[in-house]
Amino acid sequence: MTINPNKCVACGNCTYVCPMGAIYIDPQIKRATINRNECVECYACYNGLSQEHLNPTMVRTMRKVFQALRLRFDPEPDVCPTASFEPDELTWPRVVRRAFSDPRVPHESTGVEGRGTEEVKTNDVSGRVKVGEVGFTIEFGRPGVGVWFRDIQTACRMLAAADVHFEKKNPITSLMSDVATGTLREDILGEKVMSAIVEIKVPVERTEEIIRLVWDIEKRVDTVVTLGVGTRCDDTGDETVVAPILEKLGYTLHRAKTNTGLGRIMNSAESDRQTVGASR
Amino acid sequence: MTNTLHRFGPAASFQDDFIIFAIASKGKNDQGALEKLREFLRLAATFGPVNLGDARNGGALRPCKNMTPMSHWGRDITPDFDAVIQGLTHVTTVAAVFDDRVKAEDFMKAVREKDFGLSINISTSVDGADQCCHAAGIPRHSVGYSLGFEGHTEHLPNSQVMMLSTMCGHGMIAHSMAKKMIDWVKEGRRSPDEAVTYLARFCSCGVFNPSRAKRILEEARVSTK
Question: Which of A74, A130, A257, A267 to mutate to test the interface with B (most CBs of B within 10 A)?
Answer without folding.
Answer: A257
